[in-house]
Structures are given as C-alpha cells and as structure tokens.
Records
---
Amino acid sequence: MPDTQDNAFMRFLNEKLVPFSTKVAQNKYIQAIGGGSMSLMAIIPGFFVALVFGALRFAFSFTSYGNMIDCVYTLLQTPLAGITGSLPGFIILIIVAQALKEEQNTESAELAA
C-alpha cells in the first residue's frame, strides 16, 4: 500500500488546504465573528467536501444516467446480477473473491512482520 505522502490528495490537503484553513482561522476578523479558530477550521473541510460532491452531482446531470446512483446501478449492479444468475458465473465469482482475500491476508502479514 502506498505511503499517504505519495497520494496526491493527501499532498494537496497537507500542503495547500491545511495552511490555508489555518491562516483563515487565525484572521482576527474571522475570530471575532466565529468566536474562535477551532470552530471555523471544522467548517472549511466540510465546505470543500460539499463543493466536490455538488460538482459531481452537477456533472452527472448532463449524462444519460442523470445521477450517481443510476450510474453505479448500470455499471456495476446489473452486470454482477447477470454473473450470479448462472452456476458457472457464481463459481468464478467465489474463486476471484477468495483469491483477493488471500492476497489481502498476505499483504497484512507482510505489514505486520
């Protein structure tokens, strides 16, 4: 598993968002309005999460799916339901799941050692 510092999103949070939210929270005008820096620092990440998912919702409104739920249903649930509808497909699905579980257990054992 890659280190969190290698992840682009975590780098963005650590290098850009945290210093920005700290500067905003230390602003004397915001402290007078918000009553303290900690209450405002909790709002800023929530605002960015709402902004990202709002943008995703807006983008999906232009697709043929209409929303994210219909997209997941069409792309994942419908094909998986077709696979499990037959015995050979179900057996293949069980074998793949077991192989992935073994790989996960192997990685966990390597990290523990």
---
Amino acid sequence: MFLFVNTYIMHHHTRIGIIGAGPAGLTLALLLQRSGIPCVILENRSRDYVESRVRAGLLEQNTVDLLRELGAGARLDKEGLEHHGVILSLMANAFESLLMN
C-alpha cells in the first residue's frame, strides 16, 4: 500500500490479523493470500479442536462455490450435507384466505 504525501511516496506496511478460523476467517485469509496480501489468523482454540468441529451450520451456495474455488472445499464436499430448501406450510390456508379478502 502506498500513501501519497505531498510529492513523496511513503511505504506504509499494514499488518492484517483475522480473528477466528471459522468459514469467514478462512475465506478472508484465502482471498487475501490469493491477492498476495499476507495475514495471520488468530484463533483461541487449539488446531485439533478447530479441525474436528463443524464451524458453520449452513453455508449459502455462493460461499460453497467460493470455498471450492479457493481450494478449501475438500472437507466440505466430504462431510457436508446438501440442503434442498425449506417448505413453509404453517397456517398456509389461513394466510391464503387473508390474501383473498
């Protein structure tokens, strides 16, 4: 990163620390790495704990696609369950009759 001060160019070094090794932290670190930006992930749990747990209950499809593109989809593909959507039917008839009136 360069800061322009008057007519001089000064080099400015920014250190990036990412809090948490969950899906968001992992994705951010991989995106930064892909752009050539060094960073460090800070996690208060042990590596064994982190690697043995599911860190997200549900990932949207665009997130899954991005993780695969970044090379982090192997465990996701091996252990993840595909979600096929939700059907909402609670009081469907009552709601439909309200719309008709």
